[in-house]
Amino acid sequence: MSDILLSLKGVKTYYGKIVALRGIDLDVHRGEIVTVIGANGAGKSTTMMTICGVTRAREGQIIYDGENITTLPTHQIVKKAIAQSPEGRRIFGRMTVLENLQMGAAVIDYAHFEEDLRMVYDLFPILEKRQSQRGGTLSGGEQQMLAIGRALMARPKLLMLDEPSLGLAPLVVKQIFEVVKELNEKQGLTVFLVEQNAYHALRLAHRGYVMINGQITMSGGGKELLSNPEVQAAYLEGGRH
Amino acid sequence: MSDFLQTRVGAALKDAALAAVITLLLASIMVGLRTKTEQGGLVIVGQWGLVAWMVGVVFVGRLAMSLLIWRGNNPVANAMNAMLPKQDTVSKIGKLVGPLLLLFAVTLPFYGNRYVIDMGILVLTYIMLGWGLNIVVGLAGLLDLGYVAFYAVGAYSYALFAQYFDLSFWVCLPLAGILAAFWGMILGFPVLRLRGDYLAIVTLAFGEIIRVVLLNWYEFTGGPDGISRIPRPSFFGLEFTRKNGFADFFGLDYSSMHRIIFLFYLILILALITNFVTMRLRKLPIGRAWEALREDEIACRSLGINTTNTKLTAFALGAMFGGFAGAFFATRQGFISPESFTFMESAIILAIVVLGGLGSQLGVVIASLVMIGGFEVFRDLEDLRMLVFGLLMVGIMIWKPRGIVSSRAPSVFLKEKKSVSGDLVAEGEG
């Protein structure tokens, strides 16, 4: 088993005739937090959706755990223990918190359900208090916690988070990122994080990639990128987020 | 004057006056002038009295609506709201309603006369169709306007199997269900990528295609002549005939009611099976996947749910129950023709599901009773029937916009039971 869990090789994705990704190369090692930062429309979310097979790579390869998953259907990719907290959270509004979490475990057997539920409730105690409430009645921060909790119920090897800080108060963002860090340190969970909030993301991540216009223009350690003058000028201007 | 217009009553008066003016403008052209054939050609006759009536009705109606219904802080509407029971009481009553209705249905043949039992059979058929469609529309959130197609497939399967192969009802019933489910999947494949309005249009077309094929394939289906002399069902091989049938076997006096009562219990059992299967499925992964699919398809895919299979099973299962109901319809009527499977039927079944509250099993029952039963009760009103019926539907949608039973019981509990009212979530969500 190699050290690399996920690797994209020259991935190109199109929406019709429009190029969204112009050949992406990136690696995620086991036990790492890797972040992709970039402006709106840079292709961050497309990268994530391409990994999951929601949009298809027209060229290039996606290798996960030594296996080519480029053309697998989405539900089979997810069965390989890649869990995703999609952009905009997308929780099930009319279903209760508990049912939402149960949906997360749909892809694996329910054998570990109680145990995993305990783990998620320990990470986000607020979800336990809200467990019989409808998902739609939760606050934005709670919904994001639910989305992450739901993804964790699938016992992932790789957790992919798409803009978990979107529209949340700074304090809540901090709390959520601390949980991600804890998951990574204590359980050795590999995390692939797509973020606009470059400051928080780069501080958290071991390594980062900067994406502009469908291409990766820079990469390096999280702290290293954070102190890079170009990154600072483009993404951290106007103070700390 | 302008101060007066600022008040609620003033604003309502102004609004009503505006509506009356618009009515006057429209009605004076469309109703006020009428052509009449007289000697020497057409003459124009005025109907100004009728126009005045219409303007008056619109003015008073609009005024009453804006004073009593639309605006929140007014004494009349508040008093009416206070009269309505609280949510807690409603859910307590709701727990009793189901068993009571079931008891009522089971005992109905003991005291009902023939007309009532016939009505019961009709209502139960629609309840079964409503429950079947509820899987597709209520649970999986796939708007199907062509549900009657599966009803037709079921009915024609039985009729044709009986006609060509002389098969009995009990053999044909599962066959009809399987064939309908098969057609459900055939419809399912091309519409897998569609949602909402687009899906609705394609399913509408599908319903019409089935009807038009039945209408025009004269050699096979009899076209507009339909199929007659469809065999009646037997009770474990006992026919409901005067000689050597059900009555003789049990030593009863022959009565034509036996068959009616038998049909009543047959559709009751079929409907209860539909309900039981749906309720069980809701608690299984596939049922939860349907509901999740209704909420958010992309989230479903990102959780590793095979949305293709989930949609196809919803279509197939919904269609299967439609097929069972169709076979029952054929055997009960003894005669079927494409006339029975028009778009109107689809619309009524969909209205039952929507008025009852999407996804609610009890709601379907109440809505069927109100819609089908009410339709019959108001039969004496002749022309006014459709008007009363329409007002009823508008009324339900004003006061209960999410349907009669709008709360959704969670399918899983750990510690406490608690259902959340539909009022807490905005309409159109999910």
TrEMBL record, chain A:
Residues 6-238 form the ABC transporter domain. Keywords: Amino-acid transport, ATP-binding, Nucleotide-binding, Transport. It holds the Pfam family ABC_tran. GO terms for biological process: L-amino acid transport. One of its GO terms (molecular function) is ATP binding. The keyword Nucleotide-binding applies. Belongs to the ABC transporter superfamily. This is Branched-chain amino acid transport system ATP-binding protein. It comes from Cohaesibacter marisflavi.
TrEMBL record, chain B:
It holds the Pfam family BPD_transp_2. This is Amino acid/amide ABC transporter membrane protein 2, HAAT family (TC 3.A.1.4.-). Residues 12-106 form the High-affinity branched-chain amino acid transport system permease LivHM N-terminal domain. It comes from Cohaesibacter marisflavi. It is found in: Cell membrane. GO terms for cellular component: plasma membrane. It is a multi-pass membrane protein. GO terms for molecular function: branched-chain amino acid transmembrane transporter activity. Signal peptide: none annotated. The lineage of its organism: Bacteria, Pseudomonadati, Pseudomonadota, Alphaproteobacteria, Hyphomicrobiales. InterPro entries: ABC_transp_permease, LivHM_N, LivM-like. The chain crosses the membrane at residues 12-31, 51-72, 93-111, 117-137, 142-161, 167-186, 198-218, 260-278, 312-335, 347-372, 384-401. Keywords: Cell membrane, Membrane, Transmembrane, Transmembrane helix. The keyword tRNA processing does not apply.
